[in-house]
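Collaborator request, handled under Task 6.
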Amino acid sequence: MNICLAGKNNIAVWALEYMLANYPQNSYFVVCNKNDNGINSWQKSLKYAAIKNNITILDLEQVYELPNLLFLSLEFDRIIRPNKFSTKELFNLHFSLLPAYKGMFTSVMPIINGENIAGISLHKIDAGIDTGHILDQSSFPIAPYDNSRALYDNFLMFGFELFKKNLKSLINNTYTTRVQGAMGASYYSKDTLNFSNLSIDLKKTAQEIHNQVRAFSFRDYQLPQISGKSIYKTEIQDGQSDKLLVGRVYDISDGIMEIHAIDYIVHAYIDFEDTLFEAARHGSVCDIQRISDLEYDIFIKNKRGWNLLIVAVFNEHLDLVQYLLDKGFDVNSQNYTGTSVLMYAMTAASISERTDILDLIIQYNPNFYLTDDKDLGVLAYAHQYKNTKIINYIQSSYDKVSRSSQA
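Structure tokens returned to the collaborator:
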């Protein structure tokens, strides 16, 4: 059988790897989304996974005439025209409990609308938009403080489980379907929201304001703004608002703004990501401690997948590295392409000849066997820098770990 996987992100990569491991007898092809640059970021790249596994990458038009084809769409970015294919075995994994939330913004609109349940639908692809017959669904709760990133993460996790559950029946053509009903159906087009011009309507109830902030909070893309400041979460207070102050915003403490909604007061929490990483670049322990004291999550990653420990090691701030390790940062942290803290420490030492940070990292027993997306480890990279002193240092430490593991 020819199986073509079209889509993006972790769920597509997980699906490809699962099929290769469990159904190796099939021939596999991949169609990548237009914006897939072949580099892993906060989500894995399907193009990268395909190249790594020697899977043929096709244009969509090349798939139409493939014989004995099973076509699987997992977050694919183009509309599928079933009449162009030589097969009727076309399936899509959609991030909603169809018939609700057809179309776009499935991680946003349910939160705006105050839903407490979301789900995944596996359905046949027909000429409509997410209107095909349903094979299977699974549901999960939306927690009161889940934002759109948290909801998306759940879509990936539950979606992959639904995919694995149904894959055998798709391959063996033993699945059954049911027609989507009209009751409860909804659809959102790409024109529903304009993410380049988002604003929070403050003349709403406290719950509606809270839902807006949750819905637009997806750190990897954007955070909502109130009074020109990025907000990462809100909390509804017990106290009722002053009805003469509805829609107004006041700074009440370091990092918190107070909003008078239609009914109750809302506290909006200012985001400190930029300040936090700037402090790490300059080695300012006191600034990071101050932000940590505000109960802000200092373990976040930036858009490159760097956490504060990676930044501190890269910029050779010994005191900050020690502070962060004491705070519980993982000495085996990796960025989105797999570069580890130990690799950064080795690189810094190879360039500057300083070994104090490398010494400290090694005291915390890092994993010398970690590799990045290129399957290269710290010793391989040490040889690239051609610093004999550091190469010998890493080799000696590596040998000690090897002997210890064999003892």
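The cover message to the collaborator said: "The mean pLDDT is 96. The two ends are 48 Å apart (CA to CA). Please let us know whether this matches your experimental observations."
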